[in-house]
Fold:
Amino acid sequence: MVGIRQEQTVGVEKAISPPKERISYEEFLEWCDEDTWAEWVDGKVVMVSPAATKHQLITGLLLQIMNIYAETRNLGQVLSAPFLMHLPDVPSGREPDLLFVAHAHLDRLKETYLDGPADLVVEIVSPESRARDRGEKFYEYEAAGVGEYWLIDPDRQQAEFYRLSADGRYRLFTADAEGIYHSEVLPGLWLRVEWLWQETLPKVLDVLREMELI
Structure:
């Protein structure tokens, strides 16, 4: 038996104790469910804090834009947390805020997790996750071959875009003079960075019209 789980069907109250011992990724999948925010790193379970409102709103905006773009261009699949990305060579099982899997790699998609690196990962940085997103996850995603990594920090109004180079290292790319970033992994997709810092985020339909998707 791994871990202790207590649930109440009334009131949706739940107390979860993560396993203290090291467990395999298969045991982690058995222990973790869709309502549990946790990651698996080299045999250890790491609990993750729920996202704040601003974090959720930005994630939702990017999810809709990326999903509609990928669907209309028939490029692949966009997924949002909680959905695990298993990186067996690292080894880790992370829950990125957003991930994109190109058509060529859709065989990596399993029922409850992605078995291998996504082509693009987006992390919305919070004060609690800043060190993890910029440190552990950065190097894990780089080593595993995640082709493009976006770090969006709403509190600092800072957006960093990394692309995997031929030598297997991330190189930093920023928005152009007009404040627009053009994705490499999702060819043709662009993002006006200032959208993310607005007190009221832009309406998805207005963004899609500006991007000429509708």
About this structure: Residues 53-210 form a domain with the tt1808, chain A fold (CATH 3.90.1570.10). The chain has a mean pLDDT of 88. Residues 90 and 143 are 7 Å apart (CA to CA). DSSP finds five helices and 15 strands in the chain.
